[in-house]
Amino acid sequence: MTRRPPRGPAPRAAGALALAGALLTATALPAAASGAARPAVPSIKVVNGETQPVFSRADAVTQTVSVETDVDSDRDGVRDRVQLRIMRPKETERGLKVPTILEPSPYWAGTHDVPMHPVDVDEVQAASRRPVKRDLAEVFPGYYDNYFLPRGYAVADLDSIGTGGSTGCPTSGDRAEQAATKAAVDWLNGRARGWAPDGTPVTATWSTGNVGMIGQSYNGTLPNMAAAGGVAGLKAIVPIAAISSWYDYYRANGGVVAPGGYQGEDLDVLAKAVLTRKNPEVCAKVIDELTATQDRETGDYGKVWAERDYVRDARNVKAAVMVVHGLNDWNVKVKNSVQWWNALKKAGVPRKLWLHQGNHATPFRWRLEEWLRQTHHWFDRWLYGIPNGITAEPRVDIERAPGQWETARDWPVPGTRTVALGLNAGPEGQPGSLSPRPRPGAPQSMVDAGRTRTAEQLLVNEDRADPNRLVYLTPRLDEAVRVNGIPRMSVRASLDGRSPYLTALLVDYGTDTRPTGARVDTGERVCFGQGVPGDDGCTTRQAHRTETAPFKIVTRGWLDARNRHSPSRTEPIAPGREYTFRWDLEPTDYVFKPGHRIGVVILSTDHDYTLRYPAGTRLTVRPGTSRLHLPIAPGATAEAFE
Questions:
Q1: Active site residues
Q2: What angle separates helix 218-228 from helix 175-188, to the nearest 10 degrees?
């Protein structure tokens, strides 16, 4: 998860075009009367199904409230309090009642650099890894105050427990953090107590009680938590690159698997990184318990992970959910949003989905106008009850290529079917072939070297045998093949050595220019909201960074072979004995172009993600009986793989 405050004003140049048009008044003129007229109660203005920017950002009222939760995570005998910072139209002082758009976060007060757990597994415990520098420069551009406040919303930031101005201890996603986030919604609905900085009790007399939440990464995970708790008053959330199950952030199918860029991080490391409250030493025991219970030995799904699994509680969600995720995000992996999307669908929750070509990012700066239109309509619909047609639009927006978007009524797209491709031996054994016609062959072996060779290094020279990987390729495609959904592996294999990992990479082989997930500034300034001194309500538009390369890892997946029957149960494996191993790859939506080849690369250790055992484990795969199962969108024919 990116360690940065995921919002806050991006650098904004002076002299950018000001917000076009004069602001409309929000106060109706009093009717003529013989006596003194009573001032009219201010109200919002709605035109064509949209709230209009009739309130002044410059004149906004600000307040800070300490809200009482119903948990005591630091175990000091006093209920934790979370700090809420609010900005609202000044007209709320004269009777205007407004809903609130809230962004909860553990990052508002910054983060600490914390050493990571060792990932090189030796007989003697390896030294801790150095801290990974967290990216505090690329802040998510703040715009809620500039854009939503003038349209009749309060906007608020919340320090999650154990961070900033809050008390309690950070607990990396458990029910205490969930309850603390819920407390802010309760206060906005008159169900929780709050105090001003001077200790004066305060209530949200200006609040309608309707609350929306939005945020990226951890800031989007906290809304997922609150929604899974079924809190009354939480009407809509927009979780961006957010976690739905912490097991699927730090583990995969029984294996200890890192978020991309943060090898060695775990629940305890993250808690230490965001522990920015006063007197942090009171949380030492709580975080020590995280270290003791997170289990980096077996990687099994157990109680500590069940407490951090919101997918199981999707039936409790009362809020409409707009899920947003980058198809190139290897920090919070796509599974977190897809399994949430599927669970919400099963529970009948109103929902939308954006899948884009970025990595761990928000589409605000490269699809600004449509992002604002849809999130504006989303909040207007669910927080104000305005019938604007957003729920009648296609549910899904997919960025097929940089700047090229299409819509669908569902995802995976209706008509998607699963095609099974056999992992067959090639004419000389390796490389092998991928074909809908499986052919039995002699077992093929590789020797694990992932401790010293990265996946990218092991993918090159795919037409040659390599002792440290197995590769299986389709012929060059005659037509485009779109994979959308969850690819799955079924491999008949044996392991002999210390590494228990099986890694599968789905690879697009063919030189092409593709998005990397990163973005670059275009230099174009665009204005989206009301400005104030030091914040002009504008931003610099971005575009996707691309690179020309001979291959791309489309998706990948991992299995701890000892968890071949369940992620909750470790079972020993007999060296050299064949088993059937089944596991999922991360969900994807990707088009393999004509002339390219679809490849599957089998490894054991995945250098940048798994624990790294000493080299030498032998992995032997039986061709013909092993399969890759691809979810193929309508259009491609069976002949595409021949």
A1: 217, 329, 360
A2: 80
